[in-house]
Amino acid sequence: MVNNLLIDTHAHSYDEQFSPDRIAMLERAWAAGIAQIWLPNCNSETIEGLLALADAYPDRCLPMMGLHPTYVKTDFENELAIVEDWLARRPFRLVGEIGLDFYWDLTFVEQQKEAFRFQLQLASKYQLPISIHCRSGATRSGQTRNAFTETADLIQAHGDTAQRGIFHCFTGTLDEAKRAVDLNFLLGIGGVVTFKNGGLDQVLPHIGLEHLVLETDAPYLAPVPHRGGRNESAYVGLVAQRVADLKRLPLAEVIQQTTQNARRLVTLQSIQA
């Protein structure tokens, strides 16, 4: 493994699942060649832990700020006010994770859309990229409601042609991957790429490496052979290897290019002082 070159662009390293061994987990990541871990926020309750890590490892743990769609409930306007306040108070590298989730509950879909639009405006205001969560789900009639399509439509309607970011945990179709690329977004590839029926084997061979970044979504979605267990950033190398296999490229090339893609995403944006 190339030392200190990999970037995990999405990991909840502050999660309580890491409470017993967080420092050891991070040490394993550094030893595995992870240069940076990008930390998405979920809601007001996760901010303290997220910022503690970002402050303890300022060059390695990069903080995001946003309201995750599954936390959009009746109090979502108060949550958005907290997000807005934090973005004005200190630097963040991305607005995230934000988006639409139709998998667990469709009760607050319109509120999710309102929250997403508001956070797109914040991202434009601070010239920050965004980390997008979009997960489809079934309606009461049993039909699938496509979160990717509705998310992409909202991005286009926002009209900020400078908007960039990552479709985190991308597991969509080739047509969806192409649309994300056309919107100038990167695809965040995680442990699902190692799953036998994950579907990305039909997509990634047709998408240029310059459009991909790597992630774990730790502690969730651990790659094979750790599937079913707790995920952690040290495993991002397994994701890189599977991408290399699918694209028939040297592992070193995948690591170098995806890291370059990630670094370019945050360095091209204006980070507020």
Structure description:
There is one protein chain. The chain is an alpha/beta fold and 273 residues long. The protein has a single domain, classed as TIM Barrel (Alpha-Beta Barrel), CATH 3.20.20. The chain has helices at 22-31, 47-56, 76-89, 109-126, 147-158, 174-182, 236-247, 251-267; strands at 6-8, 34-39, 61-65, 94-101, 130-135, 137-138, 144-145, 165-167, 185-189, 212-214. The strands form 2 sheets. Strands 1-2-3-4-5-8-9-10 form an 8-stranded parallel sheet, sandwiched between helices. The chain has a two-stranded antiparallel ribbon with strand order 6-7. Helix 3 runs parallel beside helix 4 (109-126), helix 4 packs across helix 5 and helix 7 packs across helix 8. The longest helix is centred in the middle third of the chain and has 18 residues, at 109-126. The radius of gyration is 17 Å and the shape is globular.
Task: Tell me, briefly, the overall form.
Answer: globular
> Which class in CATH terms?
Alpha Beta
Side by side, the strands of the main sheet go 1-2-3-4-5-8-9-10
Main beta-sheet annotation: 8 strands, parallel
Relative helix content: 25-40%
CATH architecture annotation = Alpha-Beta Barrel
CATH fold naming? TIM Barrel
Mean of residue pLDDT values:
94
Structural class: alpha/beta
Task: List the quaternary state of the chains.
Answer: single chain
Uncertain segments of ≥5 residues (pLDDT<50)?
Answer: none
Gyration radius over CA: 17 Å
How many helix segments?
8
- Can you tell me the number of structural domains? 1
Number of strands: 10
- Which sequence of SSEs, written as H and E, runs from N to C? EHEHEHEHEEEHEHEEHH
Strand content: 15-25%
Write out the CATH superfamily name.
Metal-dependent hydrolases
Distance between the termini: 35 Å
